[in-house]
Design goal:
Strand content: 25-35%
Order of helices and strands: HEEHEEEHEEEEEEHHEHEEH
CATH class of the largest domain: Alpha Beta
Shape: globular
Structural class: alpha+beta
Number of helices: 7
Number of strands: 14
Helix content: 25-40%
Radius of gyration: 17 Å
CATH superfamily of the largest domain: Fructose-1,6-Bisphosphatase, subunit A, domain 1
Strand order of the largest sheet: 4-3-5-6-7-8-9-10
């Protein structure tokens, strides 16, 4: 399919409005939050489906025939609605990324909205409601934070650098994680989307996650790409193209970094 830059800009504006509306509602729901178990190791709150519906309803006002892949479906499964007509754009939505933080009334969470076409993200928005930080990227445009250009940094791996590590390190990456914990001031924000956004703006020199799903990384991957960074699966196969129609919620291990340090960081995790 062929999308003009005007088309992409319109998609981006829709994503921004949807993410802001959901973030505002998430903040309103925060202090009456009611968590429950979605699976053995995942929480959900009453706000997750509410915010997801806000996002989808806003998108459908402009794009009623587009498809959706979203985190909150029936019985703890993903939500999927295939595109209709001849405009095969998929919206990929995580209404609250960092639900465990949110369930404990911690303010480190985000809203992630991406649009994909031909298996690749073309629009990505990550909104951090508690700080009003809005990360945006689109095909052919710079990555931005609150409408100012951002870029990954080129800081070396040392005791002043910060590196994002997810909550549950997989044994396959434990040696690499241990190395980065020893050599950097590692961080665990509790939100994969925020880890990727922080890599894109240069606050983290990189991030690793072993249990990442499409809605966690679709927007962040585009942010990193447009900010001059590098993102790959842990086995170093290309992340995209990825057909949302074929995606059933499987976890993917990811490594994101700045382009200058990628070989050094990849080498650390290859030895893990």
């Amino acid at each position: 399919m062929s999308l003009s830059q005007t088309d992409i800009s319109r998609l981006l504006e829709t994503a921004i409005v949807a993410a802001r509306l959901a973030g505002q509602r998430a903040m309103e729901e925060l202090y009456s939050v009611r968590p429950s178990l979605k699976s053995e190791d995942e929480l959900v709150t009453q706000a997750d489906p509410i915010c997801q519906k806000i996002i989808m309803d806003r998108i459908k006002e402009t794009y009623p025939d587009h498809g959706f892949v979203a985190e909150e479906g029936a019985e703890g499964k993903l939500f999927k609605q295939v595109p209709r007509g001849g405009d095969p754009v998929w919206w990929v939505i995580d209404p609250i990324d960092g639900t465990n933080n949110y369930a404990n009334r911690m303010l480190c969470f985000s809203v992630s909205v991406a649009a994909m076409a031909e298996g690749r993200p073309i629009v990505g928005v990550i909104f951090e409601p508690a700080t009003d930080m809005l990360y945006t990227a689109a095909a052919g445009m710079d990555a931005q934070l609150n409408y100012s250009r951002i870029a990954v940094n080129e800081q070396k791996i040392d005791s002043f650098a910060s590196f994002g590590i997810d909550s549950h390190a997989d044994p396959a990456t434990s040696a690499g994680v241990e190395t980065m914990m020893r050599r950097t001031r590692f961080r665990c924000l509790g939100s994969t989307a925020l880890h990727l956004a922080y890599v894109a703006r240069g606050a983290l020199i990189g991030a690793v996650t072993t249990r990442c799903r499409l809605w966690d990384f679709a927007a962040g991957a585009l942010l990193i790409e447009r900010a001059g960074g590098f993102i790959t699966t842990l086995d170093e196969t290309p992340l995209f193209p990825l057909n949302p129609d074929d995606y059933d919620g499987q976890s993917i291990g990811l490594l994101a970094t700045n382009a200058r340090r990628k070989e050094e960081i990849l080498k650390i995790f290859r030895g893990a």
